[in-house]
Amino acid sequence: MTDASPRALVRAQVALESFSLHPDGSSIAYALRRVRGDDYVSHLWTRPWRGGPARQLTRGRVRDGSPSMSPNGETVAFVRTPVGQDDATGQVWLLPLGGGEPYQVTTLEHGVGSVRWSPSGDRLLLLAQAGDHRFIVGEENLHGNAHLAASG
After folding, report:
1. Cα–Cα distance between 116 and 44 in angstroms, integer?
2. Dihedral sign (CA 70, 118, 124, 49)
3. Quick check: helix, strand or coil at residue 2?
4. For the chain, how many helices (H) and strands (E)?
5. 70: which residues sit within 8 A by CB, 6+ positions away?
6. What is the pLDDT of residue 53?
7. Is residue 55 over pLDDT 90?
8. Contact call for residues 64 and 56 (beta carbons, < 8 A)
9. Residue 13, φ and ψ in degrees, nearest 5
10. 3-state secondary structure of 28
11. What are the pLDDT digits (tens) for 14-45?
């Protein structure tokens, strides 16, 4: 008989978190979440759309998610958050699908929630928290206050 305790059930779970279809429809990239030790980790995988073996794209003690295939199908953008660091924020990373290691492209203070490619593939759209400065109107002075310019 298998161990059906709540702890064993949590440790056995596998969840598909997010996905992105290749532009030509031939494959899918997806984030798969598992429990490792006392933490959740998520890695990116790819698999042919019509079936076949899956290939793991990322590794490590990380939460990789929000994959977005580039319009030319050569690169996947994703959000990576280190596991086990209380102050860690998600940042955008790029991974060439033809081979190579992922590399980080943002270092935003409040992190990134998700990423998508522009239709032309020359820009990335980020969903990210702006912090307290998003409420400032006008030019900010050294003390963090806004100065409104009078027009006349």
Report:
1. 16
2. negative
3. coil
4. 1, 12
5. 23, 76, 77, 117, 121
6. 95
7. yes
8. no
9. -70, 145
10. strand
11. 777 899 999 999 999 999 998 888 788 999 99
